[in-house]
Every structure is written in C-alpha cells, then in structure tokens.
Request: fold
Amino acid sequence: MTSRIRPLLLALAALIATPFAHAEKADRSKPVNIEADKVTVDDKNKIHIFEGHVILTQGTLTIRSDKLVVTQDMEGYQRGVATGGDGGLARFRQKRDNKDEWVDGEGERLEHDARTELSQFFLRARVKSGQDEVRGQYIQYNGVTETYLVTNGPNATTLPSQQSRVQVTLQPKKKD
Reply:
C-alpha cells in the first residue's frame, strides 16, 4: 500500500466511525483493512474508488458495500460515500464503547463529511443501537450537535403519506 493511500484509508475509517459517539474508541488505533475486487487511485485529484464486494474493517468496525468512494478536499477534509451491497444496501456494524452492544446501520447510500461532521443514510435507511432502532427513507446525524433527523421522504423531505412513515423503537432503560 502506498504511503499516500494509507492516510486516506485511516481517515475514511475514522470518518465512518465518527457518527456514533459511543463507538468503540480502541478501533481508532487499529489498522484499516479494505478488500475489494478493484481499486482505482487518482492521487492528483485525491479520489480513491473501491469496487466489488467491498469490506472495510478496523477493529470492531465493518462496512460492506458494492462501492466505496473516498475524496479529499484542498484543506485535507475527507468525504466517504458507500453504496449498494447486499440487497442493494450498504451496511456498517460497530461495537459500542464499554458495552456489550452493537450499532448497525444500512441504506442504499451512506455518506459522511468530515468537514461538517454530518452523516447521512439514504433510502431504506435504518440505524439500530442495542435494542433501539430508527427507520426512515433518510437519516441524518450531526456529530457537532449530536442530533438526528429522520424523514419519511428522500433527501430530508417529508411526504404527506400515511403509507411511508418514520418508525422508532425505544426500549425502556433499566435503572440500577
């Protein structure tokens, strides 16, 4: 692996992991491994494209997709976009820090922008943390404000339909 690619891969793993404030902290210091059928590197334009049964792992973090595109802007901020995968969905999974729980998520497209710390899940979006789960056509997580937005329409739109609704399941928290 060239010395130019490794920093981008490490940044990508950090990017994808950031949306989950309670993600396994030890993962950040683990090596990033990416398997794909094909990789295209454009060092001049700072674009790395992984295609075909892509599997990214770093510690407990796993991302599976058909395609993963990592770009870097002039200031060094990275943006990652994972698309497709099993059943047309990109998927991720990561263990929560200091808990025996996992965070799982999926969507037809997963995006994370390190500059804005904004993570987005597009179409057939689902995020599950422990036994709590949220589903919608669009899920946005803001890492700066630690807030979620979930809508029943694509791209943060709300549809006036009873057929497509946001679904949230919250389990009661046990008191010690």
Observations:
- The radius of gyration is 16 Å.
- The chain has one domain: 5-129.
- The mean pLDDT is 80.
- The chain is about 5% helix and 50% strand.
